[in-house]
Design brief:
mainly alpha
Length: 104
């Protein structure tokens, strides 16, 4: 073993360091392509999972909106029933449903 002598900075207890050589060009083309395909597959899976999660959230939001709309409509018909005759309110409901179907 060759003796290096005293270190210039005075820290002889540190292990001698090697020169910095970046490994950017040392990986093979096959390794890089494998790594690239693996990361692309991972990103695609993450995107798919995010889309599923967002679709589930949108489904819940739509269910809440539908429930609120049904509740409002029920309350509106209840108010009309207080003023009008029951059979007339039922006829009005059927007529409005027909108009909704025709317009959509």
């Amino acid at each position: 073993m060759q003796s290096l002598g005293l270190r210039k900075n005075g820290k002889q207890w540190h292990a001698p360091r090697k020169a910095f050589r970046p490994s950017s060009g040392l990986t093979s083309y096959e390794q890089r392509t494998k790594l690239r395909t693996a990361t692309l597959a991972t990103k695609a899976r993450e995107k798919e999972m995010k889309e599923e999660k967002e679709a589930e959230r949108q489904k819940r939001v739509q269910a809440i909106k539908d429930k609120r709309a049904a509740k409002e409509e029920k309350e509106r018909y209840a108010k009309l029933a207080e003023k009008m005759h029951k059979k007339r309110v039922e006829r009005l409901k059927r007529k409005e449903k027909r108009n909704k179907l025709l317009s959509s």
